Amino acid sequence: MSPAFRAMDVEPRTKGVLLEPFVHQVGGHSCVLRFNETTLCKPLVPREHQFYETLPAEMRKFTPQYKGVVSVRFEEDEDRNLCLIAYPLKGDHGIVDSLDNSDCEPKSKLLRWTNKKHHVLETEKSPKDWVRQHRKEEKMKSHKLEEEFEWLKKSEVLYYSVEKKGNVSSQLKHYNPWSMKCHQQQLQRMKENAKHRNQYKFILLENLTSRYEVPCVLDLKMGTRQHGDDASEEKAANQIRKCQQSTSAVIGVRVCGMQVYQAGSGQLMFMNKYHGRKLSVQGFKEALFQFFHNGRYLRRELLGPVLKKLAELKAILERQESYRFYSSSLLVIYDGKEWPEVALDSDAEDLEDLSEESADESAGAYAYKPIGTSSVDVRMIDFAHTTCRLYGEDSVVHEGQDAGYIFGLQSLIDIVTEISEESGE
């Protein structure tokens, strides 16, 4: 039996950790939640779990750090809002206790934005009674969610204004529509299964955006094939169609989501997967250019580091035998926040003053140059359909390298190189 569906022993009277929506999720359909500042939480898929526990050492720098497994269940807070709480598995306190939760706020404050009737769970009733009583309400709610998701499909590129005063990063949590979509769907699925169970295994992974003040995130679906070997005929046909009708078939990569901070207008731009599927090869190139453009100018200093990382990842994957990363994504992340360039002999007080002024128009007299944590990051994510001969249980065993994924990487390298050369670098 899959470990995700075994009965789980949760240590009684242990302190749980409130899970929040991860506001920088720009693609995918699996709900990613924020465990704390540096750690994310997502539903455990046995194949992905196996990948993280067995991946080659040289690939670890290109994947999020794996931090273990927790049990997640939904509960009500004092305002009767439904929320997700993570607990350590029995005898495994170390995972939860060793992670810093000092930045977690009270539940009522965190969940105030979800104070809606359709999040309420009446715990005094049995799950069976609750499901029966709310069946009609659930159907209405499901229809409403579908309408919201249809709106998301139609609004494939969105712009949201961010106030210039105050900390920009603290305001991002109110604006990402895709993360809210995934979070709502996860709650809906768990509530519909309330009759059967209220314990789920989730894996803990490194939060790749935590080092950036204003994360700009690009989610790229990699490879010329997306369906796993275990996919049904219908699922495989659907994935093949999506690849054939997008840039996946032509260049082995397509846009699955994007979040970019436009410094010129003070806006956040979101592009979802529905738009990404419609892009031509030229449209894909333009989207990539847009990702590295802050509304004022192209962030040319990021292109070289991106190319270096892509080339290194390509060399690593060319050495991997039997792996197939079907439906996996590649994340590219950098900081939309820029800092003024300062003289090397500036003292600490001057540096602190400039840091405070950097978000203000008065700092425009300085030449802006990203420093410190503004470097770009490239990571592979989502391995629910990954296969390898080391797994032992798969009916299909592949030989050699993942040519489709490597083809996509080479296409990406070629296009970023074109952008760099055309921009005069």
Protein architecture, described:
It is an enzyme of class 2 (transferase). InterPro entries: IPK, IPK_sf. This protein is of the alpha+beta class and 425 residues long. The protein has a domain at 17-92 and 176-337 and 374-422: Inositol polyphosphate kinase (D-amino Acid Aminotransferase, Chain A, domain 1, 2-Layer Sandwich), CATH 3.30.470.160. 34% of the residues lie in helices and 20% in strands. It is built from 14 helices and 14 strands. The protein has helices at 46-54, 93-98, 107-110, 127-133, 135-154, 168-171, 177-192, 233-244, 248-251, 273-278, 281-291, 303-317, 348-357, 403-422, and strands at 17-21, 33-36, 39-43, 66-76, 82-88, 157-161, 200-206, 215-222, 253-262, 267-272, 324-326, 329-335, 377-381, 385-387. The protein has a six-stranded antiparallel barrel. A hairpin with a 2-residue loop joins strand 2 (33-36) and strand 3 (39-43). Helix 5 (135-154) packs antiparallel against helix 7 and helix 12 packs antiparallel against helix 14. The chain is globular. The relative contact order is 0.15. Mean pLDDT is 77; it is low at 1-13, 100-136, 169-174, 342-346 and 350-373.
